[in-house]
Design goal:
Layout (H helix, E strand, L loop, with lengths): L1 E5 L6 H10 L3 E4 L1 H9 L4 E3 H5 L14 H8 L5 H9 L7 E4 L4 H5 L6 H6 L4 H11 L5 E3 L5 H11 L4 H27 L1 E2 L8 E2 L10 E7 L9 E6 L11 E4 L5 H14 L4 H4 L1 E7 L2 E8 L2 H11 L1 H4 L2 E5 L5 H7 L4 E6 L4 H6 L7 E4 L17 E6 L2 E6 L11 E2 L7 H14 L7 E5 L2 E6 L5 H14 L7 E5 L6 H10 L1 E6 L6 H11 L2 E4 L8
Parallel strand pairs: 1-2, 1-4, 2-3, 4-5, 13-14, 14-15, 21-22, 22-23
Antiparallel strand pairs: 6-7, 8-9, 10-15, 11-12, 11-13, 16-17, 18-23, 19-20, 19-21
Amino acid sequence: MNALLSVSDKTGIVEFAQALHALGIKLISTGGTAKLLADQGLPVTEVAEVTGFPEMLDGRVKTLHPKVHGGLLARRDVPAHMAALKAHAIDTIDLAVINLYPFEATVAKPGCTLEDAIENIDIGGPAMVRSAAKNWKDVGVITDATQYPQVLAELQASGQLTLATKFALSVAAFNRVAQYDAAISNYLSAISFDETASAPALALFPAQTNSNFIKLQDLRYGENPHQSAAFYRDLHPAPGSLVTAVQLQGKELSYNNIGDADAAWECVKSFDGSVDGAACVIVKHANPCGVAVGTDALQAYSKAFQTDPTSAFGGIIAVNCTLDEAAALQMSKQFIEVLMAPDFTPEALAVFKTKVNVRILKIALPPGGTTDWANGRNATDIKRVGSGLLMQTADNHELTLADLKVVTKVQPTAEQLQDLLFAWKIGKFVKSNAIVFCKGGMTMGVGAGQMSRLDSARIASIKAQAAGLSLTGTAVASDAFFPFRDGLDVVVDAGATCIIQPGGSMRDQEVIDAADERGVAMVFSGVRHFRH
């Protein structure tokens, strides 16, 4: 048996080659890999000896030769193929251990030049991978160091790889080539060529986009039972994102569970535990129906639940801190679909042992243990439309006190400013048209997804009334401007004393005058947060 080893990432390659040699497998290699193996005392034949042709063009041409590709592509069950190999003195290659030049890592470096990028486009590697993968019944193709243990285990047990393993390796190999080519296409398609630039300027949205997603699981059905569905993750998921969750107990997640869980998790991630304290978000049908901060998970949950106990039934709960027993005991009194946290105490998990259907997800904090989740957010949002995509940068805008513009005669107090920022943070995650009443670090009424901003304001007020909450002295966030003064009058009539909105309406002055007339404070954020 002959093995060809040509790797850019040399993780584990020496140990793997030593194990192959111990099994009596002949080692063939290229360039730096051959030198590394030889330096370790392994008998290795360089590809140039096999082809009878030296490496040339600074290594650009070394394996693009019939003695390499013939050995990879020849079908052992076709006599004419084997006769052709014999006629041309070509040996079969039974294992191909190949990983590719680090193109993705190269272009990710600040200041990467076009020349550096081009030189890290592998040609011979993908060609060999494709040849070996095409001839999968006869050749085992290994494209990642994580595959070494299984391959060795089978070779040591029986001297050969099973067809099932070789097919799986082939699929993985074609997937890797697809990912590699997609990365090259995405990068080059984003370049606005300028021969005078030291590093190319990259467009935010390339002329062609090629996405790669890995299936995590098939789902029971989609939004409705007559629809099929599956759950995929990014090729390189961000730390602290929903797809990195570990399910600790409960039923299988549904399509709607995952959509609602993502809405809750993204919202709770907007609260930095070291600054804002413990935060809890309760979501129903993709909208927050209760959000609060507190000294601990129990207080945050208790406040969030007060906003809308009716909607919280069967809701999705997310907290930004370790969930302890006290919070778990309170939560367990209600019907919960999904519960998410960065971690759970053993006592908290024990509380839910009898609630076997509750889906409990642990989503680890990003490296460093911080609860500043900025590096775990999506950079872009994508929405499918008929035969196409809409793509945009994600709405990751963070508002600060310095961004606010007070436009009324009444100045908001320091306490009101904090309530306004809290309300604004929640409004970003509520479906448009969004109206959010808040006070003291908790939502008091949420109006979501109505065709009229007036209706959203009325619904928020009705929700608060149903929950027995007084809106007197509350802060209100509107995700977009008030087109007329009537929306402002509705929230002030309900009890609001300060309002935050983007501004930008042709009738802004009319709304400002109304606020002055009603004796309330109003600030403009200068940013709109539509969420469709």
